[in-house]
């Protein structure tokens, strides 16, 4: 299956070091060679780069490894195709505009028997189950939050947790979603995370012989959260998320979590029954 990476920070940060290790898994240290992509969110908007070449051999990926782009939220994906051919329209992250901002989404997994009814506003461009799931999520958010205003993450998080539970009934559904402010991370099988803050240390990449003294690139007030399917570095306390957990990260801190029950697929999947969705859920924030 695919692999995921994300960063969320309280100040614009570069990911050239982490992306160097992560992109190596796209055809070098890993067999995720069916395309890749990365989305950078900052104050001025969102920039998305995708390529259907293996990340370890892509000239575009090589350029991004050498030329830092600073952002407060970053999503990256390397693809091992399960549904849909190897082509640009099937490369993650996918991007959609919703309530005045650009949202980016990437998925690791395989959803079976998933054919949601999508309206004209939420149609996939490619042919992956991942993009169909993203379109369905945004369509459900439209239904749960009528009106033009953009909901707060405190309102979105419990709704997304319930929606993730419904989609997980179809198969493996690890995903990352961001509006550039908050990152929503859901674990179905494998997803790891850590927080970096002062005092920063020297770390070594797992996938290549490269190390970095983080104190050279970060100040005392900087903090960031990183997520990856598999840990990217040695010498850091990566934590495995539990299946069914959804976390929210804001300004480099985990601010919310919830775990839903992990169940086998029902005969009539709830994910295809929007009428089963309640309008709101209670919010239960947590500390870092």
From TrEMBL:
<dbReference type="InterPro" id="IPR026869">
    <property type="entry name" value="EgtC-like"/>
</dbReference>
<dbReference type="InterPro" id="IPR029055">
    <property type="entry name" value="Ntn_hydrolases_N"/>
</dbReference>
<protein>
    <submittedName>
        <fullName>Class II glutamine amidotransferase</fullName>
        <ecNumber>2.4.2.-</ecNumber>
    </submittedName>
</protein>
<keyword id="KW-0315">Glutamine amidotransferase</keyword>
<keyword id="KW-0328">Glycosyltransferase</keyword>
<feature type="domain" description="Glutamine amidotransferase type-2">
    <location>
        <begin position="2"/>
        <end position="288"/>
    </location>
</feature>
<dbReference type="GO" id="GO:0016757">
    <property type="term" value="F:glycosyltransferase activity"/>
</dbReference>
<dbReference type="InterPro" id="IPR017932">
    <property type="entry name" value="GATase_2_dom"/>
</dbReference>
<dbReference type="Pfam" id="PF13230">
    <property type="entry name" value="GATase_4"/>
</dbReference>
<keyword id="KW-0808">Transferase</keyword>
């Amino acid at each position: 299956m695919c692999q995921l990476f994300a960063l969320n920070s309280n100040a614009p940060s570069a990911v050239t070091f982490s992306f160097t290790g992560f992109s190596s898994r796209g055809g070098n240290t890993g067999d995720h060679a069916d395309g890749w992509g990365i989305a950078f969110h900052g104050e001025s908007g969102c920039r998305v780069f995708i390529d259907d070449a293996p990340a370890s051999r892509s000239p575009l990926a090589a350029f991004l490894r050498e030329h830092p782009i600073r952002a407060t939220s970053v999503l990256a994906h390397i693809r091992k195709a399960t549904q849909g051919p190897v082509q640009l329209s099937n490369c993650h992250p996918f991007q959609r505009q919703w309530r005045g901002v650009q949202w980016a989404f990437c998925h690791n997994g395989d959803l079976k028997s998933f054919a949601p009814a999508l309206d004209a506003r939420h149609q996939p461009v490619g042919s992956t189950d991942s993009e169909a799931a993203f379109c369905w999520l945004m369509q459900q958010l439209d239904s749960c939050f009528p009106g033009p205003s953009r909901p707060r993450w405190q309102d979105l998080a419990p709704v997304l947790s319930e929606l993730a539970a419904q989609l997980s009934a179809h198969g493996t559904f690890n995903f990352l979603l961001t509006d550039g402010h908050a990152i929503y991370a859901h674990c179905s099988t494998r997803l790891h995370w850590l927080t970096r803050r002062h005092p920063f240390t020297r770390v070594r990449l797992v996938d290549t012989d490269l190390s970095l003294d983080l104190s050279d690139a970060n100040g005392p007030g900087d903090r960031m959260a990183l997520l990856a399917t598999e840990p990217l570095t040695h010498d850091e306390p990566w934590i495995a998320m539990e299946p069914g957990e959804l976390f929210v990260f804001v300004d480099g801190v985990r601010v919310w979590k919830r775990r839903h029950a992990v169940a086998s697929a029902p005969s009539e999947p709830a994910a295809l029954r929007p009428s089963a969705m309640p309008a709101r859920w209670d919010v239960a924030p947590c500390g870092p």
